[in-house]
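FORM 12-B: Structure-to-Sequence Request
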């Protein structure tokens, strides 16, 4: 019987156990997928701990990104067949060897992309695309400062930014993370936490203020980064791995800059056609070789605790992946 990482109450990774779990056969509009790889993110672990902004029902199987092979097709589903290589995302239920998914939210893996890459592709790259194209209306030649540039969404923002013709400045805390960001195409790197960080950013942008900030970090970094913006700048709020912050409202006023929220779930619920179009677009670009997710470490499903702890630590220069068999 297939297995899943599951718990009857929220808590740290060692609260969870690997148990037998059979999701059953697919119903109307569903696919049963044998999961081959799953992305492990900070938010996945935060949710598993019961500390995210919404709490899913218990018992809970963590995870939000996967890639695998179709095992069975439910009634009313067209365009898929057993054996198809697919990927997608969901709200939990992913750290498992098999799961059921609505076919409308499943896509075929682009040729040449492996399961591990596909598992960490959709959420990160759709987020970066939505943020830069829809929310920031980025224009070629503008400058983009990416915080947490070696993290999942940060690295995706570096690659998407370069594709869009932006001057990309990557902020990362270690030489390993800076090297990862440079490999993704960053034009310049600056050292997160450095006393002269703002001076580094300005120098990296030719002495000018920045047009766009991509911020999945939050905390003290948000205030500092917002101050790097110029007239008409846009600060994209992606997440808050560093904690929440209280930005003084005089800063947007004085700089004539905007604080812009970015949330994939809200986008999918309120503008589903636009979200679907974005998904198709980033998949096309991946198939053309423009995007290549960075993977820092792979763990077998049995080592889910170590994988979750590494993802939660923020120390990985790239994404963490669980592999099932």
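FORM 12-B RESPONSE
SEQUENCE OUT:
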């Amino acid at each position: 019987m297939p297995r899943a990482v599951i718990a009857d109450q929220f808590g740290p990774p060692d609260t969870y156990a690997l148990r037998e779990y059979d999701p059953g056969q697919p119903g109307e509009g569903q696919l049963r997928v044998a999961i081959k790889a799953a992305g492990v993110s900070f938010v996945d672990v935060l949710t598993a701990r019961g500390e995210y902004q919404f709490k899913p029902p218990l018992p809970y199987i963590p995870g939000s990104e996967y890639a695998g092979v179709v095992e069975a097709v439910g009634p009313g589903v067209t365009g898929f067949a057993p054996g198809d290589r697919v990927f997608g995302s969901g709200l939990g239920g992913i750290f498992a060897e098999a799961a059921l998914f609505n076919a409308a939210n499943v896509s075929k893996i682009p040729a040449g992309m492996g399961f591990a890459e596909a598992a960490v592709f959709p959420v990160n790259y759709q987020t970066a695309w939505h943020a830069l194209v829809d929310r920031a209306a980025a224009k070629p030649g503008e400058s983009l400062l990416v915080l947490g540039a070696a993290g999942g969404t940060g690295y995706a923002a570096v690659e998407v930014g370069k594709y869009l013709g932006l001057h990309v400045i990557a902020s990362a805390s270690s030489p390993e993370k800076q090297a990862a960001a440079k490999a993704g195409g960053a034009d310049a790197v600056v050292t997160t936490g450095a006393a002269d960080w703002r001076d580094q950013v300005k120098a990296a942008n030719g002495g000018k203020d920045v047009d766009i900030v991509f911020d999945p970090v939050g905390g003290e970094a948000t205030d500092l980064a917002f101050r790097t913006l110029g007239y008409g700048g846009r600060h994209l709020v992606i997440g808050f791995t560093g904690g929440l912050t209280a930005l003084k409202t005089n800063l947007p006023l004085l700089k004539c800059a905007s604080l812009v929220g970015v949330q994939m779930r809200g986008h999918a619920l309120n503008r589903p056609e636009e979200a679907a179009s974005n998904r198709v677009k980033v998949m096309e670009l991946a198939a053309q070789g423009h995007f290549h997710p960075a993977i820092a470490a792979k763990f077998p499903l049995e080592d889910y605790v170590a994988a979750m702890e590494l993802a939660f630590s923020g120390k990985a220069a790239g994404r963490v992946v669980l592999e099932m068999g």
